[in-house]
Design the sequence.
């Protein structure tokens, strides 16, 4: 919006507020009312929009447009009976107008009268143009979705985009439905057909990205997200998902490029989450000063952003500033005390501070929340060995085995425990079995018990399997 248009709108809203406060009468043009309604809807001030709509109806009692708008706003507010009354009033001034009939069906769906709504929509399909037919299918899909018949909704939305590949609402809803039904392969096929007709359809590219990401086709997903954002530079979600996928794939420089694009081109200066994600990228790139700046901004914007405190803890731990790391990790836990990774990180920091009791306590806490994480069992066994509790370390591994976590990493951990308590013969026997089953994981042994790197018997046994 130009500065001039902004000024005009501001004056218009000011005039409206003045007259409505005084309960006086003022005449506004239909265009002025539409402008105000668009503004309040965009700002999601639906109650205010309804008030403007009522005022407009008082002045333009024979205008179907304002009754249609009123019905739409009442549906958003969940006032379905009143919405039906508004559509019936609109019909008096614009019989059989398509928008009115679709709103009537939506209100019926809201009331739970889905069978009646579908019957009404079926009548509308007779002699409907392809564009209107597509709009009918979108509302019909809403009826099925309201009954959680997502499979039926998916195929109705497929029909909607086949009837009109430019129907943005149908494409957006199809993407959501594909996620609910896990129909990703079919979604790719449908969206490929849309893109053959219109290669510059940004929502279709975005849905392609979503489907490919779920199926693990990450390169194709990144390309699709990028196309969606290039076509529509205002497509925040496409840029965000592209950035986030780069982050998950550990492509930190590319992730930064897209996250900073979001920061610079959208009104996200007050977005704590975005600053957090940028900070994470900088940590992974070992650019700690920049990471600290963004993470500190994240906690300033949201003092209860527990993950931002956690990442600050990570940042200081990476720099071996252990006391600062403890401070921020404890802050994260104060805000959210049910995150296993927070306790695990704090445990590792305490271990580096040689506070073995606190380290062991934290790792036990991690396991309370997530006993299936192998790394926590290995950390606990390692900390116990270093604290001189070697027998207890072995008991911990037997507990892990008892709950069904018999992995090779835990097997190598058991070998380290057996060596630590002096059961050398059993340890070497088990080591031979493990090397035969999973040679690649043997480095776990040295991570837990580094002294074994200079043990002739262990080194000889590993070398014999390496040669084989």
Sequence:
């Amino acid at each position: 919006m130009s500065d001039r248009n902004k000024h005009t709108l501001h004056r218009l809203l000011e005039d409206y507020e003045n007259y409505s406060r005084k309960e006086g009468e003022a005449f506004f043009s239909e265009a002025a009312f539409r402008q105000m309604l668009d503004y309040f809807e965009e700002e999601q001030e639906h109650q205010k929009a309804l008030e403007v709509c009522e005022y407009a109806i008082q002045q333009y009692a024979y205008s179907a447009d304002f009754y249609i708008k009123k019905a739409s706003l009442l549906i958003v507010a969940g006032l379905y009976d009143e919405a039906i009354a508004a559509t019936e009033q609109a019909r008096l001034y614009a019989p059989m107008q398509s928008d009115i009939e679709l709103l009537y069906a939506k209100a019926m769906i809201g009331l739970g009268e889905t069978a009646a709504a579908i019957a009404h929509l079926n009548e509308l399909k007779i002699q409907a143009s392809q564009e209107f037919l597509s709009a009918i299918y979108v509302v019909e899909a809403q009826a099925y979705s309201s009954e959680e018949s997502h499979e039926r909704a998916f195929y109705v939305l497929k029909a909607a985009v086949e009837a009109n590949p430019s129907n943005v609402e149908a494409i957006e809803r199809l993407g959501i439905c594909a996620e609910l039904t896990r129909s990703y392969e079919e979604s790719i096929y449908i969206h490929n057909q849309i893109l053959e007709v219109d290669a510059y359809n940004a929502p279709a590219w975005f849905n392609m990205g979503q489907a490919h990401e779920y199926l693990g086709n990450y390169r194709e997903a990144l390309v699709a997200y990028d196309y969606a954002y290039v076509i529509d530079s205002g497509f925040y979600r496409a840029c965000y998902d592209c950035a986030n996928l780069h982050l998950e794939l550990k492509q930190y420089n590319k992730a930064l490029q897209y996250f900073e694009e979001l920061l610079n081109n959208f009104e996200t200066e007050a977005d704590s989450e975005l600053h957090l994600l940028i900070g994470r990228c900088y940590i992974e790139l070992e650019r700690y000063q920049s990471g600290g700046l963004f993470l500190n901004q994240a906690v300033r914007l949201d003092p209860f952003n527990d993950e931002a405190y956690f990442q600050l803890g990570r940042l200081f731990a990476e720099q071996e500033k252990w006391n600062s790391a403890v401070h921020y990790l404890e802050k994260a836990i104060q805000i959210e005390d049910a995150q296993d990774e927070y306790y695990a990180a704090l445990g590792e920091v305490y271990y580096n501070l040689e506070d073995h009791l606190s380290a062991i306590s934290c790792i036990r806490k991690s396991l309370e929340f997530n006993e299936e994480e192998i790394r926590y069992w290995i950390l606990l066994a390692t900390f116990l060995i270093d604290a001189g509790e070697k027998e207890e370390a072995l008991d911990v591994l037997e507990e892990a085995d008892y709950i069904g976590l018999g992995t090779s990493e835990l097997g190598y951990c058991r070998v380290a425990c057996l060596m630590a308590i002096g059961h050398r013969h059993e340890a070497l026997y088990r080591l031979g079995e493990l090397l035969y089953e999973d040679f690649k994981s043997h480095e776990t042994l040295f991570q837990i018990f580094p002294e074994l790197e200079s043990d002739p018997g262990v080194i000889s046994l590993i070398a014999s399997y390496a040669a084989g």
Remarks:
- The CA atoms of residues 128 and 163 lie 11 Å apart.
- The radius of gyration is 31 Å.
- The mean pLDDT is 91.
